[in-house]
Amino acid sequence: MKDINKINSLLVATLLVLIALAPMALAQSTTGTVNMSGTVSKFVEMNSAGAVTLTGNSGGGITTNGTLNNPLAVVINLGELGPANTNSFVTASVPLKLRSNAAYVLSMASTVTSTGTTANRITSADVGFGLGSVARTGVGVNTTGTDTNATSGDPTLPANGSVNATTGRYNFTAVRSNLSAFAASTTAMNGSFIMNAVPRANSNGLTVPAIFAVKPQFYENGSTTVSVTFTVTAP
Amino acid sequence: MKKSAISIPILFCLLLIGGLSTAPAQTFDISSGGTPTITGNVSGSVVGSSSNTSNLNVVIDFGEVGPSNTNPVVKVVVPIAVRSLAPYRVTATVTGGNNSNPQAIQRSDVGFGLDNLRRMGFLSRTCNNSDHIFYSPFDNDPSSNVSYNAFGRATYPGDLGDIGSSTTILSGPTLSFLTAGRLSINGYIFDAIFTMTPQFYASGTTTTVITFSIASGPNVPC
Fold this sequence. Notes:
By secondary structure, chain A is mainly β.
């Protein structure tokens, strides 16, 4: 009788196992799915495209230079801007590098403050400004993209300024050729997307020099500080 | 009395075994192989069952794959369980994922590979006369094999662009003992690896669906 009970228990256990397995055995499928998605947000950035070039200066110098592919934080001392400086212009060229995966807008805002108190002090209109030649070169750059330069280019070009026949003061006369046009944030350039689908580690991009110039003149003596902020957006 | 005491359970067992054998049990099964994982993501996620007896139904969100994600790659590992009572093949089919803008994400921007085939348990069948084969170019971890084409765009040995309609990615001999039913101990698990390199893609969102299937494969001996 004990043997029979043992056999019975074994069979019942087997039965339970089979019962447990039965529904699982029917739970089969020969297909499965993986759904995937990803998002790409608009992206823009601006960095230094290298060292600043300062020419025509008397004294002064580059206090904090631009470092390639690092955030732009340049400090320049233009030196003597009075008639003791006999150069035609004191010019600073600041290389910018822009990168984006969407159409971009480069804006600029500036402030000019002087210790002078008369109309003969250096004002924002006395600081010439323009963006130079745009370069879209290198692997991964959208070389067929187009850009619209809203400035008149190099402010020292003869076409961009002249001596005022009435006042005798040199004026930067072309469209957006001096900082008075950028007292508030104003578009300096815009264009189509800059980078093709390449990793951010690709260091190429759009480069353009931001050119600042002052014509040495009989300004009121004192010191002047010019602060410029560039902003790039993807509207 | 003694005979009936024994015969009733035996009868039940026989009926049940008979029922199982006549039930429409399949020779092949594919299911989740465990919890999927994601690394290198920004605002991404992956959702799938942790149980290897659940259906394979995984949702991957790679998250941000534009340049604001500064990680070198976004990597997703999806364990997939397979069971069979006969030689098998696993195929993959892709839908979606292409874009008319060449700078937007394409199928070829998603690296795809297979790795780490392993036994599930004691009812996993070991065959000494044939190998389980990951098919080229999917026989690698794409996250470890990123290269760049002449345009500077990231590429992989295998990607979703290499998958057409029902492309074989894995085959081999019988996987299971006794049953290919959905048990946790009677088949094999492999990792399907998906990789994306954050790049200056055109902005937007891309959706892709991959369907894995298991069916009869090359008639190889166990």
